[in-house]
Amino acid sequence: MGSPAVRRSHLESLVRIGCVCSILALATVVLGAQKADGYRGIWYSNQPSGDEYAFKYSGGLATYTANHVPIAVYAPEVNKTFFVYGGSKGLGDPKPLLEMISYYDHTTGKVPKPTIIMEKGTGDAHHNPALAIDKHGYLWVFCASHGGKDAFIYRSIAPYSIEGFECVSQREFSYPQVWYFGDFGFVFIFTKYTRGRELYISTSKDGLTWTEDRKYAGFGGHYQSSWKWGNKVGTSFNWHPNGNLNARTNLYYMETSDYGKTWVNAAGKQLDVPLSSEQNEALVHDYHKDGWLVYINDVNFDDKGRPVIFYNLSKGYESGPKFGERIMMVAHWSDGNWVFHKVATTDHNYDMGSIYIEEDGTWRIIAPTTGPQPWSTGGEVGMWVSRNQGKTWVKVRNVTRNSKYNHSYVRRPLNASPDFYALWADGHAFQPSESRLYFTNKTGDKVCVLPVTMKADFESPACVGR
Fold it and tell me: Which H or E run includes 8?
């Protein structure tokens, strides 16, 4: 961005054109970094149930949702993994949600005090951020809304630096999923609450000027998860019959290799977008007729660029044993057909994890399952491995054990480094609690917790071998 004078002039121009990025005066253009004195995640709950399980889902949700993608990016140029999360000031002050960014320095093994990009006037973890890094090293943070226009895009004032951010845009987007391509720019897919939760795309060469939002799916409502492979973005989503998100069902997949100009299904057949009916050629499987609800964890690609979808199946939306165990599944496009394989069972719809497809052909899942607060969001983190493209799975490790709280939303960094392979948070699943942030390595035999309170500007996480 040039000299401080040039940056200041740019910020002043943003103010003149109205990009003050304010929501009830809580968010402002940032010149310098406001630091937190440690890593404390947001605790959040949704839809009280009035029973012993307390909520539809709840807990330490700093890395929520599976529809905010990516939240961590490894930058080999500086040997750091940058990550964003929803933070809080502590258990006694759960609001406002803090839009946070930091990094793990793989060279020193330390983390800095995290930077507060902005405060949101809410404790709703749907407002958590997503992250992108452009070809010049600037960090872009997409601070989500939850159905409104109070969403913001921030850019770092220096490459690979968390020491200051400027607000470049206020927009309407929820569930941000941002993919950067060096020869093109940004491909941004997201949700707008138009007629239910509908899916949109916008692109930008520089992150400042964006194309008009274009809808590509809208028939009742959808939650999507996406990833990129080469110049392709693939997304998988479900369907909300009559707009009822608690009835979410069916599994769909579509992809674009020309930055949203055209969309095709896994077979390469061009789709007529926006998709407007639940029966369409992006349908992977009709779970509605089978009576299953669908909760999507993650999307990845095999070595040939064929999509792999990781998702959970359930017979009901409520927490608890009423509807039995939930089934962790993978769907893989192989030899011109979708094939489906069971991974394991778990005890909650929102036991969200990540799937890794590695260069040697190993498929790896890191996800929570049953834990100290059973039949509720998250649990103890496990690791499963498949060496035959998902056909069979073996649980190879309990990544966490004997935990006080459930661990939830185990997230995969873009370009993940072996020593920072997954990021998540913990928290009591039934009642407000403190929430800490964790990461693990590729083999899951080392778990590190980020410092809750820091005295020095840089400190080492507390790590335990397994």
Answer: helix 4-16
